[in-house]
Specification:
Layout: E1 2-6, H1 10-19, H2 31-38, E2 48-53, H3 62-72, E3 77-82, H4 87-95, E4 100-103, H5 109-117, E5 123-124, E6 142-146, E7 149-152, E8 154-160, H6 166-181, E9 185-189, H7 197-200, H8 210-218, H9 223-230, E10 232-233, E11 240-243, H10 249-254, H11 258-271, E12 274-278, H12 287-294, E13 297-302, H13 306-321, E14 330-337, H14 344-350, E15 356-361, H15 366-370, E16 379-380, H16 384-388, H17 395-402, E17 416-417
Parallel strand pairs: 1-2, 2-3, 3-4, 4-5, 8-12, 8-13, 9-11, 9-12, 13-14, 14-15, 16-17
Antiparallel strand pairs: 6-7, 10-11
Helix pairs in contact: 2-3
């Protein structure tokens, strides 16, 4: 029996793997990827079980997803997890030969195993709340608990205009999300044009990077072991990791492709709560559209001048019209604000109503930091809107509790004030 899991839940996958011999190596993240996998000849038989949920990421609604599963594979046994099972919905699922249905409120490992093992059709609805092995500590689509809530896993892309400061912004938000929310996080340097994450974070230079990972993957080495080999842990923050890059443009054109990006992203997604991906500015490199489509959230970095804003308008238009990326998924970060910059309201107006979640001032001593003359650089801006864009509940309370006490300066970090209104700074 082959089991395919498409739940975006590491806890379930790990426990199912302990009980069954063959479980597909990845927890599939999108509905479209599920359909593609099920349509392959090797899965067109009665010995395949799919465990998935109606609200998996993707562009299909829950009914169309169920229908497409059956159209792609008439043999697969589907264990379908729903939020609420109304009679009309149940009849629709039955019509598409989906009979093993679980409501996620009371989902358990035991109920999943029974659905997998049972030969007859089963429906679980309104299960006993006191049943053992409930998954309420690892609810579907979530990874980490903070302040009595669960935080959704996210892939966050940082994209924007040329020279806007994407790597700088990527480094700042990665360090501080991992510190303040205590989330495990990896920052991937996928800027194959001008990789600089290693410089901004004082990391050892990696002369191999992506191209070496690709060569190792072609040797059919285990991707998870490979990633451990190439990941660099932040020496002061156990929650934060990096994958740097020194890939040449020749290697970019001749070695890299979407299949490698997909393997890398799936591997780190399973391991970390948040994945932040620093991208090149050119939209003509395939890593850009592929990553933006895979991401849950896009931070688009722009400078407050007419050249950068005009380029941003063109890029955003490309994202919306050619790649069909929703405007709601894109949040604006305005970087390098100074005395003669365009007014922030003017930038917002020119960009057509996108939400601005972060405004960062230009720093005169940034080059000194980059060149090693300064050990760090003090940043003074408010990231409350940025954190709210992560859709974390009660973020105001989390920030206030965080800054009741002062914190020692974090070595080799670009420190900044989380919220000016609180008036607390990192200790000098």
């Amino acid at each position: 029996m082959k089991i395919i899991i498409a739940l975006n839940n590491k806890y379930i996958k790990d426990n199912i793997e302990k009980c069954y011999d063959y479980v597909y190596k990845y927890d599939i993240l999108t509905k479209e990827d599920v359909i593609e996998l099920l349509s392959k000849d090797e899965y067109q038989n009665n010995n395949v079980v799919l465990i998935t949920k109606e609200n998996l990421e993707g562009n299909l609604n829950e009914k169309l997803y169920a229908k497409q599963i059956r159209l792609a594979n008439k043999f697969v046994k589907v264990i379908y997890i729903v939020n609420k099972l109304e009679n009309e919905y149940k009849e629709y699922l039955f019509s598409n030969e989906i009979f093993s249905i679980l409501e996620d409120n009371y989902l358990t490992l035991e109920s999943l195993k029974e659905c997998i093992d049972e030969g007859k059709f089963i429906i679980y609805k309104n299960m006993n709340k006191n049943q053992n092995l409930k998954l309420n500590e690892s609810a579907l689509n979530y990874s980490y608990k903070i302040k009595n809530q669960v935080i959704p896993k996210k892939i966050i892309a940082v994209y924007g205009t040329g020279g806007a400061g994407k790597s700088y912004i990527s480094s700042i938000i990665s360090k501080n999300i991992s510190i303040d929310l205590k989330l495990s996080l990896i920052l991937l340097d996928m800027d194959i044009q001008n990789p600089s994450i290693d410089i901004f974070n004082n990391l050892p230079i990696n002369n191999n990077g992506l191209n070496q990972i690709v060569e190792d993957m072609d040797k059919q080495e285990n991707i998870n072991k490979l990633m451990e080999k190439y990941m660099i842990k932040d020496k002061n923050n156990k929650k934060l990791w990096y994958m740097t890059s020194n890939t040449s443009l020749f290697d970019c054109q001749n070695k890299l492709s979407n299949k490698y990006y997909d393997e890398i992203y799936k591997s780190v997604y399973e391991r970390f709560d948040y994945t932040i991906i620093d991208l090149p500015s050119s939209p003509f490199l395939d890593v850009v559209p592929y990553t933006l489509k895979k991401s849950n959230l896009i931070y688009f970095v722009v400078n407050p001048n007419y050249i950068s804003v005009r380029q941003a308008i063109k890029y955003l238009d490309l994202l919306n019209k050619l790649w069909d990326i929703s405007k709601d998924k894109i949040k604006i970060i305005i970087n390098k604000v100074q005395k003669n910059s365009l007014d922030i309201m003017q930038v917002k107006s020119l960009l057509g109503g996108y939400e601005v979640v972060l405004i960062a001032n230009f720093k005169n001593d940034l080059e000194s930091y980059i060149n090693g003359a300064k050990p760090d650089i003090d940043i003074d801006f408010d990231v409350e809107k940025l954190y709210k864009s992560l859709q974390i509940e009660n973020i105001d309370q989390i920030i206030k509790e965080k800054y009741k006490s002062r914190y020692k300066k974090y070595a080799n970090v670009i420190p900044f004030i989380l919220n000016k209104k609180l008036g607390d700074k990192f200790d000098k």
